[in-house]
Amino acid sequence: MEPIFLIGIAALIIFAGLGFYFGLRRGQHEGLKAVEQARALEEALEDSQEQLLGYQSEVTDHFTQTAELINTMTAQYATLYQHLGKGAENLCPDGMKPLSQGVNPQLLLERLHEVQEVDEAVIEEAFEPAIDDTIEPEG
Questions:
Q1: End-to-end CA distance of the chain
Q2: pTM value?
Q3: What percent of the chain has pLDDT over 70?
Q4: How many other C-beta atoms can be found within 10 angstroms of the C-beta atom of residue 29?
């Protein structure tokens, strides 16, 4: 065989080997980039989920405290109303209509508990995922 032909075959084998080697290296590099990107996306997703859970917790705490404050205010209002009614009965002339006939404080407290149950249901619904059952799948 001629030496030029042997040099060409040797060069072809060397360049094919180099191409294969650098192709593998590049593929590994691209694979590493994809793995790093996937890890970064997973971390971002976890951070977003933690933020959402924190926000939901804050909202729940806020409305829980609001309900407690309304309970306290309602109980104080009922106590004040009863105090005013007793004072009016004791201190005012007989011709004056007593305050205690107009409002039933126990009924007021019962109504407050009913409203709280409705509020808790509204809060629970706010955190449920939205599902639209009106859209029918094609096919």
A1: 68
A2: 0.45
A3: 63
A4: 10
